[in-house]
Structure formats: C-alpha cells, structure tokens
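We were asked to recover a plausible sequence for a given structure. The inputs and outputs are reproduced exactly as logged, with field labels preserved.

PROBLEM: sequence recovery
POSITIONS: 125
GIVEN STRUCTURE:
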C-alpha cells in the first residue's frame, strides 16, 4: 500500500482518544511504541502536543451527541452506565455513536487524504 503523506489512521485516532490524559499532560502513553522523535523542539511544541491540538479541533466540530459521548468516554472516562443514563440513550446507541464519532474525527483530521486512501484501496482491489 502506498503511503499518503500526513494521513492518520483510525487506529492512531483511537490510540489518541484512549490515551487522551497522556496527550493532555504531555506524557508519552505507557503502551506507546518506542520511537525516536529526534531532538527536542526549541519552541517546546512536541508531536504529541500537535496531535492533541488536531484531536481537540476535530472534537469541537462534532455534532452535539457525538461530542458529548467523546468527552464522556475518552476525555473524562465516565462509566458507560452513567453516560447512557445522563444522555437518556441506549447502550447500543452509545457504541454506534462512539464509532460514528471516531469516523467523523478521522474524516476531519484527514480531509482529502481520507478520500485518496479510499480511492487507492479500490484501485488496488
């Protein structure tokens, strides 16, 4: 598969969401693969910080319910039972909309690159 410059996979987005606290605090998540990101940036802005900024911007553009679910599930780490009760939704809808939120974040972060990736996948098949 051809690599697309600047493309972020859904797996990476889920990793960011699941490790949101580490992104927020500037730490490296405990289960992050070892990497060499080179020398420290002079301005103090790290790759993790940029990932958090992109993620936060994408979250802010989500529809109301998806935004509430992302913040409840990954940012504040509320229990599913508490979230579905407060939002008055079913557990099934909770998981459907969380998946939709990840898809929307993926499309927002990748923009045209997501469409190029889908096209490349169709061509290769």
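RECOVERED SEQUENCE:
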């Amino acid at each position: 598969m051809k690599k697309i410059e600047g493309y972020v996979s859904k797996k990476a987005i889920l990793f960011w969401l699941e490790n949101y606290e580490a992104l927020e605090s500037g730490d490296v998540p405990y289960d992050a693969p070892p990497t060499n990101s080179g020398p420290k940036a002079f301005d103090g802005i790290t790759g993790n910080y940029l990932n958090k900024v992109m993620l936060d911007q994408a979250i802010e553009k989500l529809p109301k319910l998806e935004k509430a679910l992302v913040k409840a599930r990954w940012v504040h780490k509320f229990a599913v039972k508490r979230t579905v009760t407060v939002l008055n939704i079913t557990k099934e809808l909770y998981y459907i909309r969380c998946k939709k939120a990840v898809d929307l974040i993926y499309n927002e972060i990748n923009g045209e690159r997501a469409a190029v990736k889908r096209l490349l996948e169709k061509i290769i098949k």
